[in-house]
Design a protein that fits this description.
Number of domains: 3
Organism: Kineosporia mesophila
Number of helices: 16
Pathway: Amino-acid degradation; 4-aminobutanoate degradation
Radius of gyration: 23 Å
Bound molecules: ligand PLZ
Helix content: 25-40%
Catalytic activity: (S)-3-amino-2-methylpropanoate + 2-oxoglutarate = 2-methyl-3-oxopropanoate + L-glutamate; 4-aminobutanoate + 2-oxoglutarate = succinate semialdehyde + L-glutamate
CATH topology of the largest domain: Aspartate Aminotransferase, domain 2
Distance between the termini: 53 Å
Shape: globular
Keywords: Aminotransferase, Pyridoxal phosphate, Transferase
Strand content: 5-15%
CATH architecture of the largest domain: 3-Layer(aba) Sandwich
CATH superfamily of the largest domain: Type I PLP-dependent aspartate aminotransferase-like (Major domain)
Structural class: alpha/beta
Enzyme class: transferase
Largest sheet: 7 strands, mixed
């Protein structure tokens, strides 16, 4: 099916699942993009995955156009907006070709189709699974999510730090399509495949530290955190896991125990795993020790030594910049002092970089800001451009402590997710997206600091790169204003900007757009945020 002339308006909600097929030009562009980007990681791995022409040469264009299981299933031409080249539309290199990079509302939000789907959702989906916005996605490209009513929303959340390279980046789409047409699953622990190995090689190369490393792949962030703990316990022969106030590590039983916040993550879901000790965090805005990171580390170490004993600690798990807990950057010196204490006491230092990692903060990993080299790094989210994949990477001596067969899972390191990861990593490296994220951070930060000068409710502006936040208090006090954060976020949602909140006290608005978002789109979204504040403070 050639979808060049098809519009959303002709498709019922159920039809969106079969939005396949694109015009020949678009296929060609996707193939060319894939060709350009596939020339690296994995030593020609992607090449291997592709069919060969009679001459024996890999033919990526053929692979895409003649795949019998469906042509490129990328976003459809965007008939609701003027096509690229028209005034006011920037043709962003990271957008799917047909998704105009512009906020554009054609209905109130949620629109009629979203409301219909919400009714079906209420009848079919368990109510414990909530959604921030009542708007259903139909497709996405670059920094834009298009809903089922044709509204174009600016994405300042990246699906919680996942689509760091942008939505539907051609290289990722093509990598996924190539792989799924070859095989979707064998189970790496039954018959292995090269993609898994290539992702591990890339992670071993990219994570901090020039010692010998090994990696193991999983599905979710929580699963990887659990495995880091298993590996650390096995390597040390010790039990206790040290975590911190405001930490978020996941929703499985062990990771709920490691997560600090009760509602909504833990309430009524216990009993939780034992041998988890929570130490005090450095939280400069609210901590009497303020910006003295060394003192905050000494306080945590003193608690650990007196209440657990260094000799019982298997690992210390820390987010270098806290995510769900409020985008808290610990005071300078806090993380290096803890890392040094771990080394001195043979405790495995685990950096949970699930949210802060993968080119989000102006470095590949947030640990690098202070030159910290973790023993193990946990990654997920941004690693695979939207496919579920996570990993534990670190010192070979620790990683190899688990006995053969002790680490695994049916779907861990799924080949399609690995292909997506190779394409996402290639995109980050070839296009210098670490640096792009750093520049984006400067732009974000200067805007947010200006905003803080106007609104005394903004108690703090913090974060790095494309991971920035404002914390809202009642002016002149330390009292968190979660109500204001919720109202500001809701105003953004109603005006076509996906904005997320976070924080132990629910009073933080976090900005984590794709690092590839265009300047125009970011400026427009920030203008909406400023308007939201102006309207909601009163
Ligand atoms: N570690 C640092 O941020 C996931 C949670 C969303 P999973 N954060 C988003 C929600 O409400 O469930 C996260 C994280 C850090 C671990 C995790 C867990 O990653 O892939 O959600 O399991």
């Amino acid at each position: 099916m050639i979808a060049g002339g098809t519009t959303d308006e002709h498709l019922g909600p159920g039809a969106h699942g079969v939005e396949i097929g694109v015009g020949v030009d678009q296929e060609g562009r996707v193939a060319a993009e894939f060709h350009r980007r596939a020339q690296q990681l994995g030593g020609g791995l992607l090449d291997e995955l592709l069919p060969r022409s009679p001459s024996g040469k890999t033919d990526r264009a053929r692979a895409i156009t003649r795949n019998p299981y469906g042509n490129y299933a990328g976003p459809m031409p965007d008939s609701s907006l003027p096509q690229s080249g028209a005034a006011g539309l920037s043709a962003a290199p990271y957008s799917a070709p047909a998704v105009a990079q512009k906020r554009h509302l054609v209905t109130e939000l949620p629109g009629p189709r979203s409301r219909e789907l919400a009714a079906r959702r209420d009848a079919a989906v368990a109510s414990g699974v909530s959604s921030l916005m009542p708007v259903f996605a139909a497709r996405a490209g670059g920094g834009i999510v298009v809903d089922v009513d044709g509204n174009h929303l600016i994405d300042l959340g990246s699906g919680i730090a996942v689509t760091t390279v942008g939505h539907a980046v051609p290289a990722v789409v093509a990598g996924v399509q190539q792989q799924i047409a070859q095989f979707s699953h064998t189970c790496f622990t039954i018959t292995p495949y090269e993609g898994y190995v290539a992702v591990c090689e890339a992670l071993n190369r990219l994570t901090p530290g020039d010692f010998e490393k090994r990696s193991a792949l999983f599905n979710s962030g929580a699963e990887a955190v659990e495995n880091a703990v298993k590996i650390a316990r096995r390597a040390t022969g010790r039990d206790t896991v040290v975590v911190f106030d405001h930490a978020y590590h996941g929703r499985t039983n062990l990771t709920m125990a490691m997560t600090a916040k009760n509602m909504p993550y833990k309430d009524g879901f216990g009993p939780f795993a034992g041998e988890v000790f929570r130490a005090p965090m450095s939280y400069p805005l609210r901590d009497p020790l303020g910006t003295d990171g060394a003192a905050a580390a000494a306080r945590a170490i003193s608690d650990i030594e007196s209440q657990v004993g260094a000799g019982r600690v298997a690992c210390l798990v820390l987010e270098p910049i806290l995510g769900e807990g409020g985008f808290i950057e610990p005071a300078t010196g806090f993380i290096p002092a803890l890392a040094a204490w771990c080394t001195a006491n043979e405790v495995v230092f685990v950096a949970d970089e699930v949210q802060s990692g993968f080119a989000r903060t102006g470095h590949f990993f947030a640990s690098e800001h202070e030159g910290v080299v973790p023993d193990l790094v946990v990654t997920a989210k941004g690693i695979a451009g939207g496919m579920p994949l996570s990993a534990v990477t670190g010192r070979a001596s620790i990683m190899d402590a688990a006995h053969a067969g002790g680490i695994g899972g049916t779907y861990t390191g799924n080949p399609v997710a690995c292909a997506a990861a190779l394409a996402a990593i290639a995109t980050i490296e070839q296009d210098g997206l670490v640096e792009t994220g750093r520049r984006l951070g400067e732009r974000l930060r200067s805007f947010l600091l200006d905003l803080q000068a106007k609104f005394p409710q903004i108690a703090d502006v913090r974060g790095r790169g494309a991971m920035q936040a404002i914390e809202l208090n009642v002016p002149g006090s330390a009292t968190p204003d979660a109500g204001l954060a919720a109202r500001v976020a809701k105003h953004c949602h109603q005006h076509g900007v996906i904005a997320l909140t976070c924080g132990t006290y629910g009073n933080v608005i976090r900005l984590l757009p794709p690092v590839t978002i265009t300047d125009d789109l970011l400026d427009d979204a920030l203008t909406v945020l400023a308007e939201a504040l102006a309207e909601q403070v009163g």
